[in-house]
Amino acid sequence: MVKKLLFYFFAGIVILGAAGCETVPIAPGASRDLKVLCEQNNVQSYLDNVSQVVNLRGAGREARAMVGSNVVVVDGEKVFLADVLRRERGTVIVPADFLSKVILRLTGSETVSRAGYQIVVDAGHGGKDPGALGRRGTEEKGITLDIAQRVKRGLITKGFKVTMTRDRDVFISLEERTEIATRVNADLFVSIHANSSPSRSVDGIEVYALRELEGAEKHDAQRLKNQRLLYGNLKMKSGDASLETIIADMLYNYKVSDSQLLAAYVNKGTSLGARVNSRGVKLAGFHVLRNTLIPAVLVEVGFLTNSQEELMLRQPDYRQRIADGIVASLVSFSAR
Q: In what order do the strands lie in the sheet with 278-284?
């Protein structure tokens, strides 16, 4: 980072453009001057010469890209371009698909498609780990798997691509669960659990999102491993520590804020869909929240230690209501 700061000693924020005019068609495969592209589409663009991060705004939406990388964060969603952003004689040049994947989304002109939207559905526990146990012997691992499978089916019918961390009664480590999300370049991670409490009167649904991490937590071995996996999927200069650090920080900032927003959507949609008590959104540092690199939530669908909720969770129609609520929440969040 020190070398980069010295190299870009002329640090500052450069306004690249914010003017409107008619959009000019882009020839297939052609790269473009970012300043011109933004002027043509009434998008504001600011380049930080120190970090080489480009901030874009349009129609109430925001995006962040980086020179030397092909990853862009648009309203909290990772977008991968066909090539990296480059600087040529002081001008930022973007690949041809920057218009359709970034600019048109910022202006609200894109055609909504969920064909490439990838969601990882994580059924908690499994195999040798039964999770929480109800008084009637109900195992959390079975409840979570059934709901996760219903969520998967519902999301697929809505046009999403879905990956499950487990689709049968097997044990999957926490580390493996987060690696799966990284390998498939997922956009969202939803972990499904059933709750327990020393008090048998406690009931309701609650949703967890990631709290702000401490410095040491950002360097958790599993988190760093997932970052290396992610970098392997990106087009950028291999081994550039400064570039990797800035991308990691950029994704982390969006992850924290969007995870909390996602949790709010899921909490409201699921509690309304299942017609049960909402215990609200809570912040935590659970492994699957801490070490995934995308917006992630953990949904506690009810308390197996509450006799009434255990009975409800044993009913297929009730589990379907929960699944439908989660699906509706994810649809709303992705369309925001």
A: 161-164, 118-123, 188-195, 296-303, 205-210, 278-284
Tally helices (H) and strands (E) across the chain: 11, 15
Phi/psi of residue 88, nearest 5 degrees: -130, 115
Contact 144, 123 (CB under 8 A): yes
The pLDDT tens digits for 182-208 are 999 899 999 999 999 999 999 999 999
**What is the distance between the alpha carbons of residues 278 and 302, in angstroms, rounded to a whole number?**
10
Q: What 3-state class would DSSP assign to 294?
A: coil
Beta-carbon-side half-sphere exposure of residue 246 (alpha carbons within 13 Å): 24
Go through the domains of the chain in sequence order and give each one's CATH number: 2-107 (3.30.457.10), 118-334 (3.40.630.40)
Q: Is the dihedral of CA 212, 49, 25, 39 positive or negative?
A: positive
Map residue 240 onto helix, strand or coil: coil
232 to 31, 101, 142, 225, 228: CA distances (angstroms)? 23, 21, 35, 11, 6
| 241-273 pLDDT tens trace | 666 777 777 767 778 889 999 999 999 999 988
